[in-house]
Design brief:
312 residues, mainly alpha, 76% helix
């Protein structure tokens, strides 16, 4: 069956092409995209449900994990439905306001996600390096406040960039060779000077990717130093096991994220369809893997997830 052509011709809209050069394969590409999205959504929703039902899991570590699950759900949901509409129905139009909203939301959630990972690293640092003071330093109320601070940080960083983008004059060519709106794609469509916009984007990337990652590395450096001072091998293993899941989640988030951002800025030789597929997989695979990683590494969480899954 031929796809519907719902591409608008209105100049107040942008056109998202999907994956340039692979239009004939859009339907086939949508199959793994849909599977990854459903698996990620199911895993994160189950995690939220189990933690909300089990009093024994309502600890700071699992509450932080729930915050991470919410950002994972928000990230994939902001991208996948529109992408599938392009793949299945050729519905490529998006209003300027809708494009700016998607850009703001995705960027904000990305900054918040990174801030939560920093908070989780701090949580593990206190748990291992100051275990006797953990209950007084890290409390449920503190976690809520830290979550609000992460949100405020994300909004304060991303709102100015979105306002700057909204003031750009756009050329007659409003075709975005992508499956969703992103700041750099909008800058490329502008007829105006984008020096300030590019500089601000680089600053955000530096603060989020480099500064946040440096704080995480510092936290785990201090954790490793504290663990090495423990004489008991059993205590060594127990302490490191509590951090393994966090480290795996951070690697699945930051490693491909840095590659994607650097490729977008400097990798001009990379084919556009390859870059777009990688970006979409980055936004889908990390949310899908996070519940699996924590479910495997945390026996307490794994047992509770198994109990509720068997009831279905």
């Amino acid at each position: 069956m031929a796809p519907f052509n719902l591409t608008p011709s209105n100049t107040s809209t942008f056109i998202l092409t999907g994956i340039p050069g692979l239009e004939a394969a859009h339907v086939w590409i949508s199959i793994p995209f849909t599977m990854f999205y459903i698996l990620g959504l199911w895993g994160n929703v189950m995690l939220l449900y189990v933690v909300s039902k089990e009093q024994t899991l309502q600890k700071p570590m699992y509450l932080l994990l729930c915050m991470l699950a919410l950002t994972d759900i928000a990230t994939s949901t902001a991208v996948v439905p529109k992408t599938l509409f392009i793949f299945w129905f050729n519905f490529k139009g998006i209003t300027v306001g809708g494009c700016l909203t998607q850009t703001f939301f995705l960027s904000m959630v990305s900054v918040m996600h990174s801030a939560i990972l920093v908070t989780m690293a701090f949580d593990r640092y206190v748990a291992i390096c100051n275990p006797l003071r953990y209950a007084t330093i890290i409390r449920k109320g503190q976690i809520a406040k830290l979550g609000i601070l992460c949100l405020i940080k994300a909004v304060l960083f991303i709102l100015p960039m979105t306002l700057l983008l909204s003031r750009l004059p756009f050329c007659a060519n409003r075709v975005i060779p992508h499956t969703f709106c992103e700041p750099i794609a909008l800058m490329k469509l502008s007829c105006g000077d984008i020096t300030l916009h590019r500089t601000y984007s680089l600053v955000i990337m530096f603060v989020v990717s480099v500064l946040d990652l440096s704080l995480i590395v510092l936290s785990y450096g201090l954790i490793i130093r504290a663990v090495l001072r423990i004489s008991s091998k059993k205590a060594h293993q127990k302490a490191l096991n509590t951090c393994t899941a966090h480290i795996c989640v951070m690697l699945t988030y930051y490693t491909p994220g840095l590659f994607v951002n650097l490729a977008h800025l400097f990798g001009q030789s990379i084919a556009s369809h390859v870059h777009i597929i990688l970006v979409n997989l980055y936004l889908l695979i990390s949310p899908m893997l996070n519940p699996v990683i924590y479910g495997v590494k945390s026996k307490e969480l794994r047992d509770k997830l198994g109990k509720y899954t068997c009831r279905m």
